[in-house]
Design goal:
The protein is of the alpha+beta class. The protein is 27% helix and 23% strand. It is globular, with a radius of gyration of 23 Å. The chain has a domain at 235-448: Dipeptide-binding Protein, Domain 3 (Dipeptide-binding Protein, domain 3), CATH 3.10.105. α12 crosses α13. The chain has helices spanning 27-36, 84-94, 110-113, 138-141, 196-204, 216-220, 253-262, 265-273, 302-311, 332-343, 358-366, 383-391, 406-416, 421-437, and strands spanning 9-12, 41-43, 49-51, 54-59, 65-70, 117-122, 125-129, 162-167, 173-177, 187-192, 210-214, 228-243, 277-279, 318-325, 348-355, 373-378, 441-454. The strands form three sheets. Strands 1, 8, 9, 10, 11, 12, 13, 14, 15, 16 and 17 form an eleven-stranded mixed sheet that branches. Strands 4-5-7-6 form a four-stranded antiparallel sheet, with helices on one face. α10 (332-343) links the parallel β14 (318-325) and β15 (348-355).
């Protein structure tokens, strides 16, 4: 077997190596970014932050100054040292207003790092001083991939375990591990295959050794296949309807709560997803820091929902305008119809506008050009980021839709300055409960997904954030 051919083939929905300082929650893009690049910290199997380029760190009592001690001897793929100078340069680049774009929303990272100063303390130590307390800074720096200052802006050069060795005309990408990195698979090949069924078929016929992002039907085809390991996991991305709390009926918290209380989410999971999901009764997935591992309540109370609608003046019925994409989530139309059917006995009906262009749809949401509610998702694996970017009215972020809860905002300020994990976790749990009573969104579910691997891999598990860690794959 040739050197180029050696190594397993991984098929995922897309293979796209974006700028490392873009803001993305796409698990396929993150899988590739994390193989080629390294940040100060990275997600561990438990979903928490583990040492990466930084072997240790400390934070000041006021959560405004962070000091990182770096692993010695790490170099970027162009030979430049991945030292304190490279970290400082990379953090400064990440904080620029032209970086951190996602779906038309610019400067995601600058929201947190504007005014930050990265200081080289020594060749192996860097300090980051912030204008505001940020006890969850690791949620930002986990995407702060360290780049070679020598490479400049043309094509960023990272210091990850793998480097890109080749890109074929058919889109296949070959990665090769650096010397001394100790990767179980020194060479990896990645291929974009859009259809989940085609990805599962590639593992079934032996042409691929790993397939990620498999839905229920694609996974079912492999469930009894000899010589294939199928591993299920819950996606932390929350499928929701954003409420337009700036105008219309959903300005009223009684109406927002009534709609949440009226839903049988487990019936939605069963009917729309064929059971491949988990009902969501709050604004965070169970994998998020501070969220309850087990739902506090089943969330369904139609008698109270009807009373709240009556109190809000909608006893004679309520028609809501719904903005709905035709993809991402792909079940958006079926989901909207199923939610409408559940709300109909309460006198609530939907008037649906379908939007086919998903990027244009996201831009409409960002510009607050939605009806009374719209199908959307919430993907950052960070309780802090979700609250700050989507719920805090003082920020008015890209996906914020007019909601305001001063008690939650005061708790967020406390969380920013609470360095101790247990205390901060308790604050986010308080936010979770408050946002059940006064919801900014219609909470629906998280998807279940599967990864297929060739051979028997009894000890292998998917990482808690739903990203395939290419460095942690077993030898294939």
């Amino acid at each position: 077997m040739s050197a180029e051919a050696a190594g397993p083939l991984i098929v995922q929905a897309g293979v796209d190596l974006v700028d490392p300082h873009d803001c993305t929650d796409d698990p396929d893009k993150l899988a590739l970014l994390e193989a080629v690049h390294e940040a100060l910290v990275r997600r561990g199997p438990d979903g928490r932050w583990w040492p990466a380029l930084a072997e240790s760190w400390s934070v000041s009592d006021d959560a405004r100054s962070w000091t990182f001690d770096l692993r010695p001897g790490i170099r970027c793929h162009d030979g430049a040292p991945a030292d304190a100078e490279a970290v400082a340069w990379s953090v400064t680049r990440m904080a620029r207003p032209d970086m951190g774009a996602t779906l038309g929303a610019p400067a995601v990272w600058a929201q947190y790092l504007a005014g930050a100063k990265a200081t080289v303390v020594s060749g192996s130590t860097v300090r980051i001083d912030l204008e505001r307390p940020t006890a969850d800074l690791l949620d930002i720096l986990g995407s702060g991939y360290v780049l070679s200052p020598q490479a400049g802006e043309g094509e960023p050069v990272g210091c990850g375990a793998y480097r890109v060795e080749a890109r074929a005309p058919d889109g296949r990408m070959t990665l090769r591990a650096g010397e001394g990195r100790g990767m179980p698979n020194p060479v990896l090949h990645l291929q974009g295959v859009a259809a989940p069924g085609a990805r599962s078929a590639a593992v079934a016929d032996g042409s691929a050794q790993v397939a990620s992002g498999l839905d229920r039907e694609a996974a079912a085809r492999l469930a009894r296949q000899a010589g294939v390991t199928l591993v299920g996991h819950l996606s932390p991305t929350a499928i929701i309807f954003l409420f337009n709390a700036a105008r219309g009926p959903l300005q009223d918290p009684r109406v927002r709560r009534a709609l949440n209380l009226a839903l049988d989410r487990q019936a939605l999971v069963s009917g729309v997803l064929g059971g491949a999901g988990r009902a969501l009764d709050g604004f965070l997935s169970p994998m998020h820091f501070g969220a309850p591992a087990v739902a506090d309540t089943d969330g369904t109370d139609r008698d109270t929902a009807r009373r709240l609608l009556d109190e809000a003046g909608w006893s004679d019925g309520l028609t809501l305008d719904v903005t709905c994409p035709t993809s991402l989530p792909d079940e958006a139309e079926a989901l909207t119809a199923a939610v409408a059917a559940q709300l109909e006995p309460l006198g609530v009906s939907f008037r649906v506008e379908l939007v086919e262009d998903r990027v244009a749809y996201a831009n409409r949401v960002r510009r607050k050009e939605i009806g009374d509610l719209c199908v959307f998702d919430s993907s950052p694996m960070s309780s802090f980021r979700v609250l700050y970017e989507k719920i805090d009215s003082r920020v008015g972020g890209s996906w914020w839709q007019g909601y305001c809860n001063r008690e939650v905002e005061a708790l967020l300020d406390r969380a920013r300055a609470t360095v101790e994990d247990a205390g901060r976790k308790a604050i986010y749990r308080q936010c979770y409960r408050l946002l059940q009573v006064d919801p900014p969104w219609l909470y629906l579910y998280n998807h279940s997904r599967h990864v297929a691997l060739a051979g028997r891999q009894p000890g292998w598990r998917m990482r808690g954030d739903g990203v395939l860690d290419l460095r942690a794959l077993p030898a294939l």
